[in-house]
Design goal:
By secondary structure, the chain is mainly β. It is built from two helices and 33 strands. Helix content is 5%, strand content 45%. α1 (279-293) packs across α2 (299-305).
């Protein structure tokens, strides 16, 4: 097994880095990369897609009005979450539409909010539904197979935010929990309220077998009458690979790793990827939120509505470093640069910059994406993305990667 905490022995090597240092800390290998990210080779996607999926090929004019996760199937086909219709659309390796799986509802084989998709050998598909708090299993050709859930009933002490099959017969669940609500002191109008996160390892029926160390979940802003979303809150991430699990708070460029025994074995850190939060970025996100709200209410009311969300005392000194983490078919690790949450819009900002790491954690490259392009899945030298045009019409496209 080739882990990022090991510097030798992997077939696929990254950019050699004499400044990479690994130390042992209470049995956990901490690997720190000292290289500047600007020294990495830059990858690009081709100018023209190999194929594009608009939803029109299904015969349903409403298909793909709002696109969720996209994943490669084992045979090279694609499965696309059609959020608007709460279903999965299956395409074969030639790009031909085959069938839809699921429908709106709460019964077996029905969906409400597809949080994540994972695909496995034999055209097996798993979806987690955050609204129903359950993991459903499907076959690309035959449809619904079974479900697990609701997981834990969804209490505020262990809210199941996402879940994935792992190691054939086990499940990994991301649990979020509230911390004690902070009290405002004299003169305070808003304060951070940090959630906590933890992974649980479960058997095929959902019974807990083991737990990970806790780490920081996202945080909201507490004020006198409640709490509110904060655009620059960190977002915890989880990426499940065949023989390891990467996870973290996203606050810094740090990826912790669990082994198949659910033991914390290592953490990869890259301090040079952490960036101060610039006033210009804060102002840009705030102006966009006010402009979105001003389409519905008077401008002054729009400004007042977001008066708490951008207060200097609750902004982090550094912007969160990591948005999402993906693991591709070659076990490379793809790390998305964090983008602030857009308030008042159903479309979130896409991560424009990705860092690619070899399976041993060594840096490989950086990928810069075109505007309004969301990376969803990587298979060898091809990527599947969601793209949005000037009219906010979405589609899915497959591109070749250019790796100079």
């Amino acid at each position: 097994m080739c882990l990022f905490l090991t510097i030798t022995g992997c077939e696929q090597r990254g950019v050699p880095d004499a400044e990479t240092v690994t130390v042992d800390s209470a049995g956990v290998q901490i690997t720190t990369i000292g290289r500047s990210p600007d020294q990495l080779p830059e990858w690009r996607i081709d100018r023209q897609p190999l194929r594009t999926f608009t939803g029109g090929e299904t015969g349903d004019s409403t298909a793909l009005s709002l696109i969720g996760p996209v994943r490669w199937l084992a045979d090279g086909g694609l499965v696309i979450a059609d959020h608007g219709a709460a279903r999965l659309l299956v395409y074969d390796s030639a790009g031909i539409y085959r069938r839809a799986l699921g429908r709106q509802g709460a019964g077996p084989g029905e969906l409400r909010n597809i949080t994540s998709i994972s695909t496995h050998a034999g055209d097996s598909i798993a979806t987690y539904d955050a609204s129903l708090r359950r993991l459903s299993f499907w076959h690309a050709s035959t449809g619904f197979v079974r479900q697990v859930g609701p997981i834990d009933g969804g209490t505020l002490e262990a809210w199941p935010a996402d879940a994935w099959p792992w190691q054939d017969s086990m499940l990994v669940v991301l649990q979020l929990a509230t911390s004690p609500k902070p009290a405002l002191t004299n003169g305070e109008t808003v304060r951070r309220w940090q959630m906590r996160a933890q992974l649980t390892l479960r058997d095929h029926e959902g019974r807990v077998l083991d737990t990970s160390p806790t780490f920081n979940g996202m945080y909201t802003g507490v004020y006198g009458d409640g709490d509110t979303r904060l655009p620059f809150s960190n977002q915890p991430f989880v990426a499940v690979a065949p023989d390891r699990i990467y996870f973290g708070s996203g606050e810094q460029f740090a990826l912790a790793q669990l082994t198949p025994t659910f033991t914390l074995a290592g953490e990869l850190r890259w301090p040079a990827q952490d960036e101060p939060l610039a006033v210009e970025e804060v102002n840009e996100v705030q102006d966009e939120a006010i402009a979105n709200a001003a389409r519905r209410v008077p401008l002054e009311r729009a400004r007042e509505a977001f008066s708490r969300n951008f207060r200097a005392e609750i902004l982090p000194a550094n912007r969160p470093s990591i948005g999402r983490v993906l693991v591709d078919s070659d076990q490379r690790i793809w790390v998305e640069r964090f983008e602030a949450q857009r308030l008042g819009s159903e479309f979130q900002a896409n991560g424009k910059l990705w860092t690619v790491l070899a399976p041993d954690g060594q840096p490989l490259a950086r990928l810069a994406l075109p505007r309004n392009t969301r990376l969803e899945a990587i298979r060898g030298s091809r990527v599947a993305v969601v793209q949005r045009d000037s009219l906010d019409v979405q589609s899915v496209a497959v591109y070749d990667l250019r790796q100079p």
